[in-house]
Amino acid sequence: MAYLATRNFLEDKDFVDKWLYTIRTGELDLSWMKSATEKVKPHQANPRRGLTYRDLDIGNYGFSALPEKVRDNRSYAPRGAEIPPGVPDSQPWVSRKSELWAFNTESYYEEAVSRQWNATTDIPWDRLESAELPEAIGKALSQLMTFLTEVEMIATDTPAMWLPRLNPDFIEVKAFIAAQAMDEARHTEVFRKRALTTGWGLMQASPMNEMALKHLRDADSFSEMSVALHLVAEGNVLTMFRFSEYLSPTDVDKKIFRLVMQDEARHVGYGMQHFKYVLEHFPEKREVLHAHLDEAENISFAGAAATELTESFIILAGGGLKRENIEEGIRITTIFNLKQMQEHFERLEKCGMPERKERSKLYMMYEMGRAAAEAAGIRV
Amino acid sequence: MAVSFPSVEYFEALREKMAAHQDKFQRLGFIDTTFGVSVANNGKSRNFILEFEVYELRSVREVPSVDPRQVDFVLVGDSRVWREMIENIRRNGEADTSHDINTLAHLGEQLKIVYDSPDGHDKLYRFMESIQQFFDLTSQVDVSFNQ
What we know:
A: mainly alpha; Ribonucleotide Reductase, subunit A; B: about 150 residues; Nonspecific Lipid-transfer Protein, Chain A; two-stranded parallel ribbon
């Protein structure tokens, strides 16, 4: 037990006497009724949407009023509540808006809540009963699902780890991060279920993948975590989900990937908006972001080239293990790998970091990869 | 009576079907995106802008061309590809594994996705299931094809 109450209430005579006095006499304190807080009346901007966090962006209750440094509140007092003496310090690690804020955070949260789906009942699992896949395809699909289950387990832990570390005044960000943890848990679930329904069970875990993912989990700051997870890793995984949907051998797999890509794109959106927010409001942090990207790109290059993943994709893309299947699989998988890199730099450029290409070793790899592909007759 | 593709009437027909299936689209969640659809035929194209908000298609209009900066993304394809997709949906009740939007657009060889901002591009994926199910409503509409 790291935290003990400041008093032993069960043995505190004054506390117990007061409790019993209130029961006997009905005499109430009521000092809380005099709270000197803002009285507001939120309205639904769009009744079809309901009452959103944006509708609550009023006066001191609103996220627009949040300062860069939250000094007034280090407790769990809800933003805008009166804070009497005696609330414990929750010791948040992050009390600076620039570390975690993103444009439209509240909208990403509302979208997350409204677009939740159910991995147990929204996937037509019964349609798999009649689906028979050739052995190589079935095993490759199961390996892909094993890999993705691994990815999503760490993606669940990583945002969840940061929840208690963020100052409670950043309600909307915490809500989005909590929703993300739920999204990733659902992804873990659906990929595990699909692996086990292939009939081949789970396949092999990936040391390369896990090394890459450990970097996300052990980030030193929320901003570093967001750059590495939301922007770089999830940007790659979004392209991967789109590719996986394209490769999917059954309509059930297509449905799975269409649903997971929705969540992933939303996470990437938050990551991009956080990145843009920091660049626009705190230009002095540009070099810090470059440093985050240096390692994140290093790790993502390794993770994306993991043997278990690459070979599964080649087999799924090519349709088997014959020579002509492998050749076709390599062609399509190469296009996908290069697309992952190209879209990463496109995002950074649009977020306000066009110069990243000039200093990124990953961009050098992209150019080398493109040249090699073109030399091999692969039209990119 | 059949609606002609491509036309505003076609998309209006899908809008009506979407309104009639609000339970399904509410279950899928908010869809907040504006995108273009461009159908090319013999060197010319017909272009439409579809604006979705909350759970419905709010508006659809035909325009001379779609500026990617004014929309989230544009789905561009030859009329032959669009027709094949629509006929596939009508035959199967929904797009099969070779004719859903993501598959047709993935390599850019059948449908292309044109965009100005990656954030706008990503909205196709944020709302992918809703967009797919919107087009799948074609299974409930009689469609004829302009030459």
